[in-house]
Specification:
Layout lengths: L1 E7 L2 E6 L10 E10 L2 H9 L1 E2 L2 E2 L9 E9 L16 E4 L2 E2 L5 H4 L10 E2 L12 E5 L3 E3 L6 H5 L1 H14 L7 E4 L3 H12 L5 E4 L3 H9 L3 E3 L6 H8 L5 E6 L5 H9 E9 L12 H7 L2 E4 L7 H9 L9 E6 L3 H10 L6 E5 L2
Parallel strand pairs: 12-13, 12-15, 13-14, 15-16, 16-17, 18-19
Antiparallel strand pairs: 1-2, 3-6, 3-10, 3-19, 4-5, 6-7, 7-11, 8-9
Helix pairs in contact: 4-5, 4-10, 7-8
Length: about 350
């Protein structure tokens, strides 16, 4: 079957790989329909690694995806404990927690110590025609949600989890540092939670314009230090919650400088060098709370409802669509941030 595999940094190749075979107990065979390119995919694509995880052999990327159930294994129940049937359209949680470790048993499957994850070495992802997944990671999607929106339920879940982690309250002032797809979704989630004002910091003008469309006050770094701009706009108070949602690096310090004394900083982005840099005195003198957001948990039902009822707009994030065979071109455009790219979708069916 057709696939795209990563052989090394920026080395994506079309590959013919074996069909996965029939699903086993508690599994389903999916025909993949739509896959989104995520920032974490770009880390692996650009560097051949993400964090401490190196790609040591050809790897199928892709973890934001939707598909159609082709075959159902014995005892296959979806994420809500309901039976799955052939022909069902589903969104898929790429995380496959063990369900047995201490963190899973405590209700934190996102912190599972034996986690398998689609598209993270050594586990292949969704840039292939068919794949087998645990049925419990599948969530049926209603007809109003198309295949692209089904795939984007995953990044929306990341934004929802970050918002929940921050304990946002009505009228909390918020800043979002980096408005790629996750940051843009955080803007929308914060607005739903009643945050006001919401500042969005972004150096790419087309992304900043989209953040403004979603209700944020745009902060252009080219106009001066974003932290100074936000402090001025809040009369020296700062924000209650600062979300770092770019590739970390200098944005961690920027977020800390933007937060008010006693404020909260939620770190969502992944730095290319796997390091977190912060001026100690900024955090200490303000008494800031830092929370590292690890993926998501129990968010798919909420994501489905928010998209189905049009309370969150995921379609406006999509700037490009490519067929599978053009995935190398799609990744290059996304990694180089050309052609006003925001979210790239790859279609397989």
């Amino acid at each position: 079957m057709r696939s795209i595999r990563l052989y090394g940094p920026r080395d994506l190749r079309p590959d013919d790989i074996p069909d996965p075979g029939p699903p086993g107990e508690g599994e389903v065979l999916l025909r993949v329909r739509s896959v989104g390119i995520c920032g974490s995919d770009l880390h692996t694509y650009c560097d051949g690694r993400i964090g401490e995880t190196d790609v040591k052999s050809p790897l199928v990327l892709g973890h934001e995806f939707s598909g159609v159930v082709e075959r159902v294994g014995p005892g296959a129940l979806d994420g809500g404990g309901e039976p799955l049937d052939e022909g069902m359209r589903v969104a898929v949680d790429p995380a496959q927690p063990c369900t047995r470790c201490e963190m899973c048993q405590r209700g934190h499957p996102n912190l599972c110590v034996r986690l398998h994850f689609c598209g993270l070495f050594p586990d292949d992802g969704a840039l292939r025609e068919r794949m087998i997944v645990p049925s419990r990671t599948c969530f049926p999607i209603p007809e109003p949600i198309d295949d692209d929106a089904g795939a984007l339920l995953e990044p929306l879940g990341i934004a929802i989890h970050a918002g929940n982690l921050s304990r946002l309250k009505v009228e909390d002032a918020v800043s979002v540092h980096g408005t790629g797809p996750i940051g843009l979704l955080i803007v929308q989630v914060a607005k739903l939670a009643g945050a006001h004002p919401i500042f969005a910091v972004e150096k790419l003008p087309w992304r900043l314009a989209l953040a403004e469309r979603f209700g944020a006050i745009p902060i252009d770094p080219a106009a001066g230090d974003p932290a100074v701009q936000i402090q001025k706009a809040t009369r020296g108070r700062g924000v209650d919650v600062a979300f770092e949602s770019g590739w970390a690096e200098d944005l961690v310090q920027e977020s800390a400088e933007t937060a008010r004394p006693g404020g909260r900083v939620i770190l969502v982005g992944i730095p290319a060098d796997d390091r977190c840099s912060l001026k100690h005195s900024t955090a200490r003198r303000k008494g800031l709370t830092f929370l590292f957001s690890r993926r998501m948990k129990h968010t798919y039902p909420w994501s489905i409802e928010l998209v189905e009822k049009a309370r969150v707009d995921v379609h406006s994030l999509i700037s490009h669509r490519f067929p599978l065979e053009k995935a190398p071109e799609a990744f290059a455009i996304n990694a180089n941030y050309t052609q006003n790219v925001v979210k790239v979708m790859i279609h397989l069916g």
